[in-house]
Amino acid sequence: MSQFRFSRRPDIGDKIRVSFEFFPPKTDEMEARLWETVKRLEPLRPNFVSVTYGAGGSTRERTARTVARILGETSLSPAAHLTCIDASREEADNVIRQFASLGITRFVALRGDPAAGAGTRYQPHPDGYANGAEMVGALKRHGDFDISVSAYPEKHPESPDFATDIDMLKRKVDNGATRAITQFFFDNDIYERYVERVRRAGIYIPIVPGILPVHNIAQVASFSGRAGAHVPAWLRERFEGLESDPQTHALVASAVAAEQVLDLVERGVGDFHFYTMNRSDLAFAVCHMIGIRSHKPEASPNSAAA
Ligand code: FAD
């Protein structure tokens, strides 16, 4: 019996599956950092990695390039995020066909936020898909894809109540979603209560917790409200006074994320999605804590998603 609350059971790492989220880089410097991150995380053999799609489709070409490069140069199975905001059905269908022609078979289907940013008024395109559920339907009409969707343990800020929110999730599942990935959260009781509500609504797909290692507490605090997640006071307190001490900030952040993930493992959760912010250190450290170890990368490049 370990003196620690969360002692690593030797078999845990074999049962846990992780995925990592990246955003498409804007500059050569950011691109170099992303590839360092991808190369560092690749040997952990994630279930898949995903690449986000900028507000209003602003990163369409960069998302496609990044996903295609992951597919061509690594052993990883990439998923492309796609949003339907500001696009007609025809335009959205063209994007789906473009991505499918690159060999992409995994998608994260979303409505997206208005180009002016999260929290600004959403207006569906008059001829477009209106929400995440319709986007799932569109993808399914184009192929038998693996489709992840969003889920909100603290409910989406635009949803009037949980019932409306979970009804949208149900529609996504009815249209063919494979799994849901949650918005980040820091209180595991909230996640557990949400999963109970979802199951009571007859939704049985995996609800994969989205874990955000806190690279910058000030940034997280400023966008959390618009994202539909709250930052508890105890979390802010943990980072108090560390604004100009990045090393200690990172140590605390990895302890916080590891504590959260280990507690979820204790509660029986086996899949985790890490919002990496294109950095490997915290995600790598937390994976190590849950028993996930590096394997030698596969010799041959990926040719098709698993
Ligand atoms: P939906 O699932 O369509 O809707 C979310 C909720 O909002 C629903 O539960 C519904 O009840 C409510 N709702 C939707 N429309 C309305 C309406 N008109 N009136 C009232 N309620 C409404 N954003 C990006 O731009 N690019 C990304 O790559 C990206 N990746 C993401 C990945 C994950 C895992 C998550 C959780 C979020 C991601 N987002 C991304 C953010 C997301 O686009 C925003 O949260 C957006 O506001 C909602 O998109 P959605 O697909 O979740 O919407």
Description:
The protein has one domain (12-297): TIM Barrel. Helix content is 42%, strand content 14%. It contains eleven helices and eight strands. α5 runs parallel beside α6. It is globular and about 55 Å long. The model has no long low-confidence stretch (mean pLDDT 92). Bound molecules: flavin-adenine dinucleotide. The site of flavin-adenine dinucleotide has 24 residues, from β3, β4, α6 and β6.
Q: Which key terms come to mind for this protein?
A:
single chain, 306 residues, alpha/beta, TIM Barrel, 11 helices, 8 strands, 42% helix, globular, binds flavin-adenine dinucleotide
Bound molecules: flavin-adenine dinucleotide
Count helical runs: 11
Q: Which CATH architecture would you pick?
A: Alpha-Beta Barrel
Numbering strands along the chain, what is their spatial order in the largest sheet?
1-2-3-4-5-6-7-8
Morphology:
globular
Structural class: alpha/beta
Radius of gyration: 19 Å
Largest β-sheet summary = 8 strands, parallel, barrel
Count up the domains. Answer: 1
Q: What pattern of helices and strands is seen along the backbone? A: HEHEHEHEHEHEHEHHHEH
Q: How much beta, percentage-wise?
A: 5-15%
Instruction: Indicate the low-confidence ranges by residue numbers.
Output: none
Assigned CATH class: Alpha Beta
How far is it from the N-terminal to the C-terminal residue, by CA? 39 Å
Q: Level of helix content?
A: 40-55%
**Average predicted local confidence, pLDDT:** 92
Say how many strands there are.
8
CATH overall fold name: TIM Barrel
Give the SSE map.
Layout: H1 12-15, E1 17-22, H2 28-41, E2 48-51, H3 60-73, E3 78-83, H4 89-101, E4 106-110, H5 132-142, E5 146-151, H6 162-174, E6 179-184, H7 188-200, E7 207-211, H8 217-227, H9 233-238, H10 246-266, E8 271-275, H11 281-289
Parallel strand pairs: 1-2, 1-8, 2-3, 3-4, 4-5, 5-6, 6-7, 7-8
Residues 52-53, 55, 81, 83, 108, 110-113, 118, 122, 131-132, 150, 156, 158-159, 164-165, 168, 181, 183, 210 line the site of flavin-adenine dinucleotide.
